[in-house]
């Protein structure tokens, strides 16, 4: 009995309401690619501008002693709020009643209705009407159907023995049949009694009563998710069903509750609350400040016999014009939660929680920040250092003067889960100045800086490090107008010579908290021209270098959009040693020159090509390269291919979607290590998307054992496509629009 009730509840959830705030239907003000041209029951006409009287047209008319009119032959009545045409009309001016027969066409502000006979009366400025044997169409959202009779009084419409559908009037792939349907435009709700869903002519299921939103967003069931997954323990194929319910709390807040049944693990209860706190609109973008919290709870895992949970809460809040708060709390019950329960984010290594308060005072050129963070290791990750607390402040002085300079200080307390690891406080201060020596050709910029860093360590003696440095940039811009692929563009050729100097300081005794070497994997153009080899502050590289770079770009003369960019750079070192980022090692040997870093970006119409490479002149070989070529016509017709190769590994990533016709499109993605033949991640599926319903099936694979199948079906207008399956597709296939209602 329990299984039968569960299946019935799944059917009920699919027969749900529109609850995602998106108008899913095709109206006169929208265009749907796979919809027939918008049609109405009869042409929409303008109402009369005079609300106090009724305009009358007819081939023949008779007037009785009681001021009653008998009109016949092409009769048309027009008022300020309705239109009526029929073969014959009896109209009483004394009580404002109307009776019409034959070829009825009735139009008001909400509906178009045709029928055999009509009766209506106007009381207190409100029209009461009843029409028998009708077809109807709601003007604003295209809902339509047939009814034995329709009664309308103000904002309330009652349909007896009626059908209801959001499909076009000549394409009813599905409809609801009910004994009675009530549409209340005042409360924006529709209610059907004893309703049956009929899909492609076949009755699917019956419900005694259900409710939906007539327009916009409202509370109700969202479309369920059906999925399969591989169970890590036992290596079995299992199934997952998720049933979400949406609460439209207010225009700026909502809540989704969901019940998920994992066949091998048990029941998961989910909740996600969202609230819009503030919205700022600028010329270029809209910035929303929100609060979100998501939670999941599995009572007594059937396999592990423990309770398991997830909590992810975050907010971005402008406390004032100068102060911004960023906070996130992200935790799970155990490190295997994503692999065994959620079946996504399986490649994540750690979850980060933080609290950050930022202060900016542009008039004083002052910035300050407070940060504390924590992390949890998940999946196969390993522990890193976290900032127990970090505070920083920076200020620019003499901004409009001859020599602008700035001062900053940042202090960080580092901690580690492993007590044997170094920990302690790092205090780093910087003072620097910059000046433009020449704004004419060539452009010459200069800068100098001094830094001092104190390490107060828990298990070692304190360490102090001081460095001095400076830089000179010589830029030679050549700007002209050229035609590029039949487009008028601005061409800019910019050779640049940069000299960097920084003193050589012993640093091998300093622990590594947050520093990485940019040159460990791939040397990029940006990294080579930045003037600093390391990220973080635990290592500051020495320099006595000259970097030569060249950038050539073409930008659209009208939109300033960059169509082509070529860049190349190489550094030459006067010092054959560089500060090492290996612990207990001060310096390491290097050549007198770096590898060459280059890149090309090309965008022509819908085609784009991007390439970056690292070339080693000593062995005359490209050691790292990444090439991407893509064609993007729209989010359901595109292809993108990326090939990356270094000395040991070659990887291919292919993403795409292709429409077979207006209703069917295929989509897929693959991420494969071509050196070993191992598929890191794969996605494939098909979508059928008609004007008023859609369905999609997808296959997912991550690694060797984690794979599954997902399926969803949407009846547009009474369902929502805000599903986990759609979110997963958007994560796996960049640029793909995964919503079935789009």
Approximate shape: elongated
**Low-pLDDT residue intervals, each spanning 5 or more residues:** 1-33
- Overall mean pLDDT stands at 86
Beta-strand portion reads: over 45%
Q: What's the assembly state of these chains?
A: single chain
Q: Radius of gyration in whole Å, from Cα?
A: 34 Å
Compute the number of helices.
4
Largest sheet: 26 strands, antiparallel, barrel
Distance between the termini: 39 Å
SS-based structural class?
mainly beta
Compute the number of strand runs. Answer: 44
Highlighted features:
742 residues, mainly beta, 26-stranded antiparallel beta barrel, twelve-stranded antiparallel sheet, 4 helices, elongated, disordered N terminus
Please write out the topology:
Blueprint: H1 2-14, E1 55-57, E2 60-63, E3 68-78, E4 82-92, E5 97-108, E6 111-123, E7 126-138, E8 144-153, E9 156-164, E10 174-184, E11 189-199, E12 202-213, E13 220-221, E14 225-230, E15 237-250, E16 253-262, E17 266-281, E18 286-298, E19 308-318, E20 323-332, H2 337-342, E21 350-361, E22 366-377, E23 386-397, E24 405-415, E25 424-438, E26 443-457, E27 463-475, E28 478-484, E29 487-502, E30 516-517, H3 525-529, E31 534-535, E32 543-556, E33 562-573, E34 577-579, E35 587-589, E36 596-604, E37 607-616, E38 621-634, E39 637-645, E40 650-659, E41 664-673, E42 678-689, E43 693-702, E44 706-715, H4 724-732
Antiparallel strand pairs: 1-3, 2-3, 3-4, 4-5, 5-6, 6-7, 7-8, 8-9, 9-10, 10-11, 11-12, 13-15, 14-15, 14-44, 15-16, 16-17, 17-18, 18-19, 19-20, 20-21, 21-22, 22-23, 23-24, 24-25, 25-26, 26-27, 27-29, 28-29, 29-32, 30-31, 32-33, 33-36, 34-35, 36-37, 37-38, 38-39, 39-40, 40-41, 41-42, 42-43, ...
């Amino acid at each position: 009995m329990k299984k039968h009730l569960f299946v019935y509840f799944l059917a009920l959830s699919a027969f749900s309401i529109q609850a995602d705030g998106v108008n899913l239907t095709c109206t006169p003000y929208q265009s749907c690619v796979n919809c027939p041209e918008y049609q109405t029951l009869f042409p929409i006409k303008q109402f009369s501008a005079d609300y106090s009287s009724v305009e009358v047209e007819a081939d023949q008319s008779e007037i009785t002693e009681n001021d009653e009119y008998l009109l016949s032959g092409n009769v048309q009545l027009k008022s300020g709020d309705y239109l009526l045409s029929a073969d014959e009309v009896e109209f009483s001016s004394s009580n404002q009643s109307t009776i019409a027969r034959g070829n009825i066409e009735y139009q008001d502000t909400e509906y178009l209705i045709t029928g055999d006979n009509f009766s209506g009366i106007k009381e207190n400025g409100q029209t009461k009407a009843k029409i028998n044997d009708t077809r109807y169409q709601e003007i604003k959202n295209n809902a339509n159907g047939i009814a034995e009779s329709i009664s309308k009084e103000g904002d309330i419409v009652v349909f007896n023995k009626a059908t209801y559908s959001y499909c076009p009037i000549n394409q009813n792939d599905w409809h609801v049949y009910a004994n009675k349907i009530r549409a209340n435009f005042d409360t924006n709700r529709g209610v059907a009694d004893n309703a049956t869903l009929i899909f492609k002519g076949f009755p699917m299921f019956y419900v005694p009563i259900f409710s939906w939103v007539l327009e916009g967003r409202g509370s109700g069931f969202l479309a369920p998710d059906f999925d399969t997954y591989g169970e890590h323990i036992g290596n079995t194929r299992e199934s997952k069903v998720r049933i979400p319910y949406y609460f439209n709390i207010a225009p700026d807040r909502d809540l989704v509750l969901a019940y998920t049944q994992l066949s091998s693990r048990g029941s998961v209860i989910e909740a996600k609350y969202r609230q819009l706190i503030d919205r700022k609109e600028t010329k270029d973008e809209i910035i929303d400040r929100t609060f979100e919290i998501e939670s999941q709870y599995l009572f007594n895992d059937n396999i592990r016999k423990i309770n398991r949970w997830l909590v992810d809460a975050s907010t971005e809040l402008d406390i004032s014009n100068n102060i911004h708060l960023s906070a996130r709390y992200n935790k799970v019950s155990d490190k295997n939660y994503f692999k065994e329960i959620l079946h996504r984010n399986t490649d994540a290594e750690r979850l980060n929680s933080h609290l950050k308060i930022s202060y900016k005072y542009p008039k004083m050129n002052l910035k300050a920040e407070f940060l504390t963070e924590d992390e949890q290791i998940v999946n196969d990750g390993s522990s890193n250092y976290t900032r127990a607390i970090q505070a920083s402040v920076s200020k620019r002085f003499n901004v409009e003067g001859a020599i602008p300079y700035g001062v900053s200080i940042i202090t960080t307390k580092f901690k580690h889960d492993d007590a044997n690891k170094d920990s302690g406080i790092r205090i780093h201060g910087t003072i620097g100045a910059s000046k433009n020596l020449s704004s004419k050709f060539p452009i010459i910029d200069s800068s100098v800086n001094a830094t001092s860093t104190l390490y107060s360590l828990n298990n070692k003696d304190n360490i102090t490090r001081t460095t001095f440095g400076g830089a000179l940039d010589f830029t030679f811009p050549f700007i002209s107008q050229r035609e590029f692929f039949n487009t008028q563009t601005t061409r800019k050729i910019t050779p640049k010579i940069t000299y960097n100097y920084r003193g050589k300081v012993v640093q091998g005794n300093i622990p590594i908290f947050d520093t990485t070497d940019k040159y460990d994997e791939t040397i990029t153009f940006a990294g080579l021209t930045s003037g600093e080899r390391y990220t973080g502050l635990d290592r500051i590289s020495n320099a006595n270098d000259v970097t030569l770079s060249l950038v050539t770009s073409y930008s659209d003369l009208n939109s300033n959009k960059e169509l082509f960019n070529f860049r190349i750079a190489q550094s030459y070192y006067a010092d054959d040693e560089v500060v090492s980022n290996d612990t207990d090692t001060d310096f390491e040997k290097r050549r007198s020159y770096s590898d060459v870093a280059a890149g090309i970006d090309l965008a022509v119409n819908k085609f784009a090509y991007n390439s970056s490479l690292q070339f080693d002149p000593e062995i005359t070989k490209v050691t790292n390269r990444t090439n991407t070529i893509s064609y993007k016509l729209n989010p359901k017709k595109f292809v993108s291919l990326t090939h990356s190769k270094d000395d040991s590994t070659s990887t291919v990533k292919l993403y795409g979607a292709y429409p077979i016709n207006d209703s069917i499109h295929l989509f897929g993605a693959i991420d494969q290590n071509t050196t070993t033949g191992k598929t890191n991640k794969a996605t494939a599926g098909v979508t059928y998307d008609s004007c008023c319903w859609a369905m999609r099936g997808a296959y997912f694979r991550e690694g060797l054992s984690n794979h599954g199948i997902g399926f969803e079906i949407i009846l547009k207008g009474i369902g929502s496509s805000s599903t986990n399956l759609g979110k997963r597709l958007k994560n796996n296939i960049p640029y793909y629009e995964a919503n079935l209602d789009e």
